[in-house]
Amino acid sequence: MERYVLLITNLYSSSVAQVTQVRLPDEEFRVPVRGGELALARYGSSKGKPILAIHGITSSNRAWQSFAVAMVPNGYTLYAVDLRGRGRSNSLPAPFGMENHARDMFEVLNFLKLEKVDVVGHSMGAFVAVALLGMYPERVGRTVLIDGGLRLALPAGFTVEMVLPVVLGPALARLQMVFKTKEEYRNYWKPQAAFIKGWSTAHDEYSDYDLVGQPSNLIPATNPAAVEEDSRDLFEQELIDKTLQNLKEEVLMLRAVRG
Questions:
Q1: What is the chain's pLDDT, residue by residue, as a tens digit (259 residues)?
Q2: Model pTM?
């Protein structure tokens, strides 16, 4: 595990610090799940050591481009999903929530005929990874949680209903916006702090993939209802607590120090 920890942390850190190279999937799939088909992308050869990569709350499989650039040459294959309600899985119906996402991931593993796989989850994807570990422990190998996976604490005197509008406000506002061109959407992102060190063609690909619709009427792909329902689980999900309290194996957690 120690060697794996060093590899993941070093490669993830370097990939995040140098997000410059576009890395398109080598193959894309449609996985049968409840209510339709889930989008799945494979980065790397089908013969590599498999990693299931699970993105954050309004993201997509394109979030893992730079990670794939770092991991694939080291013999790994990334299977990156578009979660229910996001990306090219945005038409999949409710209910959402961590347990339902975990069931979708179980179907992905069955589709790929993977008996056991290492799992990396980012932000909300880390919560999905924990749910997958709790519900199907026999299918999960090593687990990496990146800036997520621990139940969020409510401020004293606040309820989930009081907190969610504050937490979700900016994200939901973006999801209601309409863009005339892909370039207009890129320009929405570029001034934000996450891109202070520069913008690249990899970011172009991430931004462009996030749009659906027709020219002059483009909207972000994420279903706002999925964001609202999933966010509740970040504050009150017994499965998450129970799984972490009863771990049988080490879990690697990485935290974004500056948020």
A1: 555 555 555 555 554 445 567 899 999 999 999 999 999 999 999 999 999 999 999 999 999 999 999 999 999 999 999 999 999 999 999 999 999 999 999 999 999 999 999 999 999 999 999 999 999 999 999 999 999 999 999 999 999 999 999 889 989 999 999 999 999 999 999 999 888 888 999 999 999 999 999 989 999 999 999 999 999 999 988 999 999 999 999 999 998 776 5
A2: 0.93
Which CATH number characterizes residue 43's domain?
3.40.50.1820
In a domain, 165, yes or no: yes
Q: Mark 214-250 as b/e (b = at least 16 C-beta within 10 Å).
A: eeeebbbbbbbebbebbbbbbbebebbeebbeeeeee
Structural domain containing residue 149:
2-254
Q: What are 20's strand-pairing partners?
A: none
Number of structural domains found in the chain: 1
Structural domain contains residue 78? yes
The distance of Cα 194 from the centroid of its chain, to the nearest Å, equals 17
